[in-house]
Amino acid sequence: MNKRVRKFIGINIGQVLFVFIAFLTMVLVSYFYVGNIVSQQMRSIGEETMNTMQATITGNLVGSELMFANVIQSVEAMLKENQSNEDIWDYLISINTYFSENHSAISGFLSVYAYIRDEFLDGSLWIPPENYYAPSRPWHIGAVKNEDSIYISEPYLDADTGGICITFSQQVFDAFGQPAGIVAIDIDITKVTDFIADQTIANDGYGVLLNDQMRFSIHRDIDLIGIHINVAGGEYSILEQIILDGKEVSAVRFLNADDVDSIAFFRTIFNGWHIGIIVPRSNYYEQVYTMGIVLSIIGGGLMLILAYILIRTRAQKMRSDEKNMDKSDFLTRMSHEMRTPMNAIIGITEIAKNVNELEKIHNCLIKIESAANHLLGVINDVLDMSKIEVGKLELSETDFLFNDMLEQIISVVAVNIDKKKQQFTVHADQNIPHAITADKQRLAQVITNLISNANKFTPENGNIKLMVCKENEAENGCLLRIEVWDNGIGISKEQQSRLFQPFEQADGSTSRKYGGTGLGLAISKKIINLMNGDIWIESELGKGTRFIFTALVGIGSTEKAIASDSQDDDYDGLFKGKRIILAEDVEINREIVMSLLEPTLVEINCAENGAEALRIFRESFGKFDMIFMDLQMPEMDGHEATRKIRASGLPNAKEIPIIAMTANVFREDVEQCIKSGMNAHVGKPLNINEVLKMMKKYLI
Ligand code: ADP
User: Fold this and answer.
1) Residue 572 in 3-state DSSP?
2) Nearest protein CA to atom 16 of ligand 1, as residue
3) What is the pLDDT of residues 172-218, one digit of tens each?
């Protein structure tokens, strides 16, 4: 895996993990806290419900108990007054009638009865069956056991009414303090038990009642009625233990008889009963669970978004870091690439100054020319790259002879190929059109770059092959396929993927060993793309490289091609009698133009800035035929001078051709020149042929 990719993944896994842990912690902490709040709230709702339940039941039963205590008192008073059983029975009958008619006195009242001096007295006039023996009844036994306090029976099903009943009973004593019998009262507590059974917490759960023997009197599960809590199943014994310890059961978690995770509340009321509410835990905590899920979803979503943003930002940063590194690397290389020929130019010039022999001076000049051309190549690459970066690289198409272009390329590269004694073969398909329409200079630039690279990265005596063929016909043209082969050092797969990026070289050591800016292939790819073609590479380290590219070209006119090629004709004396103004502030540049144009016999008047050019033009009264105008000059620049000349109203002021001659070569610069009123533009460093063509166009 690529080192950068590994680094990228490494850093990101760390960050994403951090985000994940941070969010997980956040979700867990919120879940924990909110869960606590919710369960506390549930607990207090539960407690409140228990309080209400306890108060209601107690209120109901204690009211009945008080009334019963009154009855006991009255019966005991009658006993102490030694009244007869007959009198007591009468009293019980009247009381029974009263309670039956006044429901508010004892809610659920059924009947009052007694067993006094071995006689059963029933206030409701119920006649017991033959075998009825009161002392064996639970109410009698319970009251005897409780001595002088009220016995409250377990709830039981009344055979007549089908309701749930309890019995209050208590012993009564005579004037001598001797037990005289038992008085009892039956009460239907169905209302109370229904009330208990209906209890819920937050609309869920069910109420239960345990009697003082710890047996279920009320339970949703009928099978558990009458069953001791200890053998009810599940984890009821946990609750039993807490109740036996005399503590309150408040929101205690346990498994109920069906093994359902549940929460229980229990209270022991005045008569020793234990009332309770049981809620399934899942419902009890439903809000907490829902909140947990919502929190997890929100947290997870936010985490994903944050991780995505982090990865994107990191990727952008790494890309820009890499670009910066590539660029600073590039600057180092560029400084080397420019200083080396510059060093040669300055050094050899110094040598040339000190020698007298013409031949040696000539040799020096040839070397200086070569170094200067190399420097120009580097500068052109940088300029091309700047154009590409701002999207300003454009093609300018002409008709030309394809083979002529190949010959020109071969003559340029042959020098270096010969130097390394490399075998160079060219194979051009016969069916390639004779004349084609394309940007000749740019097409030649790509092919030259590929062959120069092949030459550079192939050892001495190696082989280099140029193959050109017509891939297929296209509308108004054809697709050319051009291949450059070599058996040089080759390029690894990983490096191949990066080669067409600007500032990239196969590896850092390349620049040290072979030099180069690392821009050539990026520029070539851009040019090829503009020609609707594609470029790719087949290479194996140590075995060689094959660059293949396609380019869509038009079918050109042979006549036009020949005509434009034959323009490099003889210019000697061609511009005799013509006068031009050369506005140029740098003396050496003036000297160069003057000596290059000397053979044409054109008459040149020099101006050192725009203002001087304007003055010369004013004073000339139309005698000049053309002006070469530098742009950046002191006092008055070329644009202003041109505008002033055009606006001067002098004869010839509007028509005289003004040609910009400048190192500002971008399209905007050219457009700016035309806007200022100039006719055309030639770039520096000057190409003498271009200058001559321009002069021919405007002077003849
Ligand atoms: P440079 O000016 O550095 O040659 P290029 O963009 O033309 O710039 O090439 C980029 C890099 O591609 C080179 O530095 C070299 O590492 C590699 N390269 C290009 N052509 C070849 C080739 N024929 N054989 C081996 N390596 C090559």
Assistant:
1) coil
2) 506
3) 999 898 999 999 999 998 888 888 888 877 677 888 989 888 999 88
